[in-house]
Design brief:
The protein is built from eight helices and no strands. It is an all-alpha fold. The radius of gyration is 14 Å and the shape is globular.
């Protein structure tokens, strides 16, 4: 079990990585990018997979995947495409679509680096090709 202090350090590191790679002005912007991306991802993934991914992240960040407030009320495992994914991230982060797409790519890259085992491969497999490209593109892709 992770200690609270260790969890805080991992949280700070992950948010710092998102802020640096996405060229965001503040930690608050990085927090919003993570929340927007992971809440949207949590809507798209089957619930068990979202929980598995959340369990490998710092608690506060992982909770974004477990949010019960679901965009449009449709529940987890909802079917939507890349355009809808980006629009949801944009709406949640108050960014335009191009910026939201870039922030989502960065968040997914950093989350992928923070997880172990095959959980990100399972995430990729659960997504349609157009959204999967966000996961694989990374911050420089």
């Amino acid at each position: 079990m992770k200690s609270r202090e260790g969890d805080d350090m991992q949280h700070d590191h992950l948010i710092g990585q998102v802020q640096a790679r996405a060229h965001l002005r503040s930690r608050g912007e990085a927090e919003r990018a993570c929340r927007a991306t992971l809440e949207t991802l949590g809507e798209r993934l089957p619930e068990g997979l979202a929980d598995n991914l959340a369990a490998q992240l710092p608690r506060e960040i992982g909770e974004h995947l477990r949010r019960t407030e679901v965009f449009g009320g449709a529940g987890t495992g909802e079917r939507f495409d890349r355009h809808d994914f980006i629009e949801r991230v944009a709406a949640r982060s108050s960014a335009d679509d191009a910026r939201a797409a870039y922030m989502a790519r960065v968040v997914l890259e950093v989350v992928g680096e923070a997880t172990q085992g095959g959980v990100m491969n399972k995430v990729k497999d659960a997504l349609p090709d157009d959204i999967r490209q966000l996961v694989t593109a990374g911050s420089s892709g």
